[in-house]
């Protein structure tokens, strides 16, 4: 879970969608699987949610996808800015450390 930074505060002000639970700041994916950057109201944190949607409605169930379906979703999430730069740098470091 991430604390709310000044940049995140700007994202919150421009939220794509807002519910009692959270503000959707950035989203990748479409009908079906999504990766979302969300601000949790109660906790005051910015978090990443892997979610499943059906007929335009959030489904409170796990997102199950194949690796072949997950890769383009992750790519889109990176391109749209769902993940922070710090996260991507750390992920890159992990991959390099493990010879990928």
Which SSEs are present, and which pair or pack?
Elements: E1 2-3, H1 6-13, E2 17-18, E3 22-29, E4 32-40, E5 45-54, E6 57-59, H2 67-80, H3 85-97
Antiparallel strand pairs: 1-5, 2-3, 3-4, 4-5, 5-6
3D structure, described in words:
- The chain is an alpha+beta fold and 100 residues long.
- It is 35% helix and 34% strand.
- The chain has three helices and six strands.
- The protein has helices at residues 6-13, 67-80, 85-97; strands at 2-3, 17-18, 22-29, 32-40, 45-54, 57-59.
- Strands 1, 2, 3, 4, 5 and 6 form a six-stranded antiparallel beta sheet that branches.
- Strand 5 and strand 6 (57-59) form a beta hairpin.
- The longest helix is centred in the C-terminal third of the chain and has 14 residues, at 67-80.
- The radius of gyration is 14 Å and the shape is globular.
- The chain starts with a strand and ends with a helix.
- The mean pLDDT is 89.
């Amino acid at each position: 879970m991430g604390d709310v930074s000044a940049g995140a505060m700007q994202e919150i002000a421009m939220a794509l969608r807002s519910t009692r639970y959270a503000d959707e700041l950035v989203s990748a994916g479409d009908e079906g699987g999504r990766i979302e950057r969300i601000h949790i109201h109660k906790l005051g944190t910015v978090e990443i949610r892997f979610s499943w949607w059906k007929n335009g409605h959030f489904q409170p169930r796990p997102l199950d996808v194949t690796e072949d379906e997950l890769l383009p979703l992750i790519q889109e999430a990176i391109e749209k800015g769902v993940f922070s730069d710090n996260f991507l740098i750390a992920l890159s470091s992990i991959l390099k450390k493990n010879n990928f």
